[in-house]
Amino acid sequence: MKNVSLLIIGAIIGALATYYFCPNCAGHDDTVGGIVKPAGVITPEEAKTLDIAFNTRHQLISEQIVMRPDNRSAWWSLEDVRNYLKYAENQSHELGYRMDGVRLYLGAYPDTNEEGVGYTTMFFVPTGMQALSEGSSMPFHFKRQGGDIPGGDGLNMGGGGDPPSANYPQ
Q1: Are 151 and 95 in contact, with CB atoms under 8 Å apart?
Q2: Are 70 and 58 in contact (CB under 8 A)?
Q3: Is 22 in a helix, a strand, or coil?
Q4: For residue range 118-167, what is the model confidence (pLDDT) as tens digits?
Q5: Half-sphere exposure of 169 (CA within 13 A, CB side)
Q6: Does residue 108 sit in helix, strand or coil?
Q7: What pLDDT sits at residue 14?
Q8: What is the pLDDT of residue 34?
Q9: Cis peptide before 163 (omega within 30 of 0)
Q10: How far apart are CA 114 and CA 160, in angstroms?
């Protein structure tokens, strides 16, 4: 009986270790060129639906509040996004955090800003949790979303749409 209990406990520990160390080894159907499709990927049709649903809100803001066409999108180069992610992860580590993602915020330039007077903008900020000491009693990584990292630099200055008020797709 003791050996059966040890066998069951060993199988459970083995399954957890496999799940922890090899989360993408099961051969998912959602792969493109061997790369696993991230959670939240949407089709172009779903993107159009979201864009259309935003139209009334955008129209209200443009016509009633800022009284001119406003930005609907922002664009960053792959190089800038990759460099920002590396930069933010390094800075987060220096601040004592383990970066787990980025959050995208909507913002607006002040009316005194010469570059984009009052235009809507979007910016990334790093998110994460305070890093635990190496001797932590919880070695498993649970997928929990951290908060914005205090003191972490954001990424702004994405290019606007062409024209700024253009809908998806451009």
Answers
A1: yes
A2: yes
A3: coil
A4: 778 889 899 999 887 655 455 455 455 679 899 988 888 887 777 777 77
A5: 5
A6: strand
A7: 67
A8: 81
A9: yes
A10: 15
What pLDDT, on a 0 to 100 scale, did the predictor assign at position 36?
87
Q: What residues contact 70, with CB distance under 8 A and at least 6 apart?
A: 58, 61, 62, 118, 119, 120, 164, 165
Length of the chain in residues, anyone? Answer: 170
Short-list 60, 50, 47, 58, CA closest to 165: 58
Residue entry with tokens 């800075």: 91
CA-CA distance, 75 to 156, in Å (whole number)? 10
Confidence (pTM): 0.66
**Closest by CA position to 95, among listed 107, 105, 84, 87:** 87
The two tokens of residue 48 are: 């159009």
How many helices and strands in the chain, by DSSP H and E? 3, 7
Residues of the chain with pLDDT under 70: 1-8, 10-11, 14-32, 113-117, 133-145
Q: How deeply is 120 buried, as exposed, middle or buried, from its count of CB atoms within 10 A (0-12, 13-18, 19+)?
A: buried
pLDDT score at 89: 94
| Count of Cβ atoms closer than 10 Å to residue 124 Cβ | 22
User: Is residue 84 within 8 Å of 124, Cβ to Cβ?
Assistant: yes
Q: Which helix (H) or strand (E) holds 142?
A: none
* Token pair of 77 as six digits: 């180069």
